[in-house]
Amino acid sequence: MICLYRLLLAVSFGLILGCDADSQAARGFSLPKGKPGAGKLVYTQLQCNNCHSLPSVPQDTERVAGTPSVSLGGEVSSVQTYGQLVSSIINPTHRIAKGYPLAEITNNGQSRMRNYNEVMTVAELIDLVSYLQPQYQLRAYEHSRYRMYYP
Q1: SS3 of 6, please?
Q2: Is 32-138 in CATH node 1.10.760.10?
């Protein structure tokens, strides 16, 4: 009987720890499907094209001087997940764009991208991400070319 009690206690303790450790996991969380056409409208209405460029949307020519043009979409070597795009919009400092001088895209280590959390509705966020995600195409894997080695 004591062994059964210890087993139940261990299992219960494990479940409690498992639930607590996983409380911040994104698993099980998803947003409804958005409307890409509405997302394109959000992209232009919120003037994302002042600082970002997309192959399918012309960049705004009235950009603020000194503001870099951060490219979105195109061929990428890894999939841009729905969650990554949502995180990049609601917390731009989470992952700073690579390939740009940090002084141009950050201020004191923080992204220069405006915080849209107080401006954008959840529906607009959903539509914007639904529009942006298909703008990325996964680049086919390229094998390295090695010269033949002859011992």
Answers
A1: helix
A2: yes
